[in-house]
Amino acid sequence: MNRKLHLARLSNARWAWRREHIARKARTAWQREHKSYPRKHVREFFVNDERDAMMILNKTTAIKRQGIVGGLMVIALSLLMLGCSAESETAGRDQANRLIPAVEAVQARFGSLPLTERFSGVVKAKNQIEIYSEVNAVIVEVSVKNGDVVKRGQTLVRLRDKELQEQLKQAQAGYQITVAQAKQAEAQLREVQSELQRTKTLAEKGLASATELETVQTRAVSAEANFELAEARVEQAQATRDEREEALSQTVIRAPIDGSVGNRNAEVGMLVNSGTRLFTLGQLDNVRVEVVLTDRMLSYIEEGQRAEIFSENASTGLLAANISRISPFLHPITHSTDAEIDLANPEGRLKSGMFVTVDVYYGESEQATLIPLSALYENPTTGGTGVYVCQDSLRGEAVNAMTDGQTAALTNPVAFKFVPVEVIAQGRMSAGITGVAPDSWVVTIGHSLLDTESATARVRPVHWQRVEQLQTLQRDDLLQEVLQKQREARGDSTFSE
């Protein structure tokens, strides 16, 4: 009984403590939400029941959550507005930069262009010849190597001559035998001729019969024939001996002219046949450039016209010359012929077999508006060729700075318009066109930034000299690329400096 009473009291105490704890939390929450209420008013909301306390606590928690959610929504909206504002500013700046690009422009001229024709030429040494073996033999000595300069008559190669020496000895012996036989036949002929003369004298005196005279005459004719045969054998033996001597001399191959040695194809121990090429020999202090002309070109390209040769091995990169010769005979299949340009090559920079670029000047074009080649632009929309022309006159500090030799600054935005043109003449650096007035400013760099029929851009005026320098660099880069590909195709770099 006492135990049950104790447990009941303990349970009532726990329940009272829990109810008081819940009521205390409810009062604290209410005070936070209603800070302006006096504490005595809060006591009036004394909770006598656990259910009422839980309702107050839940309501307070809901109010707090609504406040947090509202605050988060305000922060999110603020960030979104800031992001939109930043994106708007960036888009505005990008749009401004895109709409006002910077280009370079040059002022067109009026005049005529030199008419040129470009060729790919091949360098060849003056008096360039191939050295061949004329006998079948083994090489025993090679006296020169590639690049050696030799004089006429200098020994290049020696071939084995033992067999030829033996043949020469035999030929000399045979010659001596035939000479002796000829002398013997001559002596016999003289003897018979003397006997014939005596027999004739005796026959005239009646001391010799006609039969005896006839017999001696027959012997004389036979002796004369034997002598002639002996002389022919001597000549034959002499020819054989001379042939053997010539063959023996051909075992020593000598330089037929002064020049430089190249394309060596001779090594000790190598068996060569008649017709085997051993060397190339030529004079490199003077060279010639050969180009191919079609039958159409012969109507305007003539001997004596000015030519310019471009080579990376030349000290200045550009060599001036004139067309020296044009062959009057055309190939029956290709209907083309060769033109030759003689060049002095004192430093030996131009090598035989090199490829060079040749420009031949054959006249001048008619008067037209002249622009740099870099000003021509193919419209990606229409596919037509034209130029971007400045619609406003460029004046002020930028142009004045360019005139004073300084780098011009960018001008204020000006309008440009794409104008189709017709190219009536084209030179190495510039083109003659119709459709654009002289003194117009045309874009040379930055066409793709405009890329519409009409656009606005800021301009940096430049000199023709700068444009030509840039075009020269581009041309040199392309030439270097072509020459490099040619070297790679040949598998060497012998022409590099």
Number of strands: 23
Uncertain parts: 34-54, 67-88, 492-497
CATH topology of the domain at 102-111 and 366-490: conserved putative lor/sdh protein from methanococcus maripaludis s2 fold
Q: What is the overall shape?
A: elongated
Write the CATH architecture name of the domain at 102-111 and 366-490. Beta Barrel
How widely separated are the two ends? 122 Å
Number of helices: 8
Q: Report the C-alpha radius of gyration, rounded.
A: 55 Å
| CATH class categorisation of the domain at 102-111 and 366-490 | Mainly Beta
Please tell me the overall pLDDT: 78
Strand coverage percent: 25-35%
What composes the largest sheet? 9 strands, antiparallel
Fraction of residues in helices?
A: 40-55%
The structural class is: alpha+beta
Task: Describe the structure in your own words.
This protein is of the alpha+beta class and 497 residues long. Among the domains are: 15-84, no CATH class; 102-111 and 366-490, conserved putative lor/sdh protein from methanococcus maripaludis s2 fold (Beta Barrel), CATH 2.40.420.20; 136-254, Orthogonal Bundle (Helix Hairpins). It is built from eight helices and 23 strands. It has helices at residues 2-33, 39-43, 50-99, 162-205, 210-249, 397-403, 447-450, 464-490, and strands at 102-107, 109-111, 114-132, 137-142, 149-150, 155-159, 252-254, 259-262, 271-272, 277-294, 306-310, 318-322, 325-326, 336-344, 355-364, 368-372, 377-378, 385-390, 414-420, 422-426, 430-434, 441-445, 454-461. The strands form four sheets. Strands 3, 5, 8, 10, 11, 12, 13, 14 and 15 form a nine-stranded antiparallel sheet that branches. A six-stranded mixed sheet has the order 17-18-19-23-1-22. The termini are far apart.
